[in-house]
Amino acid sequence: MFLTSAIAPSSVINGETGHSSASSPLSSSTWKEDDIKNLPAQLPNLQRLVLSSRNGTYSQISAQLLTSTLLNAHTSLDYLVLDGVDLPKRSFNNTLFGIQRSPAAPVLHHLKAVWTPTCYIRGFSGVLRPDIHLFLDALTTLGLISRQTLLTLDLPHYWKISEHWQSDVYATLKLPSLEIFGIMLSHSQHNNHTVDDGTHLRTRELLDALAPCARLRALHITYGEPELREWYSLRREHLSAALICFLRDHFSRTPPAHPHLEELKLTVAYWAKDVKRAWSPVISQLAAVLCDRARYPSFRRLHVCKLVAINQNDSDRSDLDAARRIVSGLFSAFAVPGVELIVDAEFLFGDTAEKEDMRLDSDADIEGDTGMGRA
Q1: Is the pTM of this model over 0.85?
Q2: pLDDT in tens, 233-264
Q3: How far is the C-alpha of 85 from the C-alpha of 307, rounded, in Å?
Q4: C-beta of residue 37 within 8 angstroms of C-beta of residue 56
Q5: Residue 39 needs a FRET pair 20 to 30 A away by CA distance; which of 3, 62, 94, 296 works?
Q6: Hey, how many other C-beta atoms are within 10 angstroms of the C-beta on 340?
Q7: Tens digit of each residue's pLDDT (9 = 90 or more) over 1-15
């Protein structure tokens, strides 16, 4: 079942396949009760609910409306996807007031959110996104998720790595059944790569909190800066190898973190020349750890996707080819028997964006300081 209209969903209801997709109303960027609240109740076999914004824009839905809608669904509902649909933090103030859980309400096992490219290019979210802790606490309190059985937590832009944690990250990631985890991280904002503005510390804390998730099969990290950029540029001449060093140390733990890991995916928004210069000295160390069959016998895929920021009127597909060549060479240490190296490049469209220069710096620039040693 596939819904193309949130205005009159009953006109295209067909509850056989267990999948429903609703798009935000054309006339508003805010979801209303008539758009969605009663929709899941009409689909007794619904397993996956996707809420999508139209035409790559973003929309908002209040936490109260979303949770009420989910509580109206049948027990078959298992998967929630928010595609360009954000929950303003302020809407959590009275989320639980007056909301009752029925015995027939579902328990979700998969949570996924997709961020909006235009907002990313601009360097701000466009709305006041929720704190990950508030969102999970609300769903847990209403019985819509169980921390013991949650399998997918892929809400990358709900983690505000640029801010001090407002709640205990260790308690938030106490998810013993977690198999898929996605997060958006960034480099320190300071121009001196040896200075940590707190971002690197919180990255380490998050990985430490994730370490006990022994059933994790897939880790997806989007690396860039969705917040606090003062100009529309993803150029970072002072980028260091901090992320790769953190991952190397994380996977070098004894006993191994995530012994069932199958896939690591890195989606990188920073300029390719900066990433190559900073990461080249340490990529082989990360590869040696993850490709060690004694430690990670199930690891079989590294997927790297390079995002190339571009405005709508200046797309040049040769930039994608250049990005793939740079990234393929950088991660060549993962091209070993039994491990699949997948390299993609995609345009990151925005209304304005600084065109990325794909010309590499001199070889001497590649031999710079990693900026972050072993823990």
Answers
A1: yes
A2: 788 888 999 999 999 999 999 999 999 999 99
A3: 21
A4: no
A5: 94
A6: 12
A7: 233 223 222 222 233
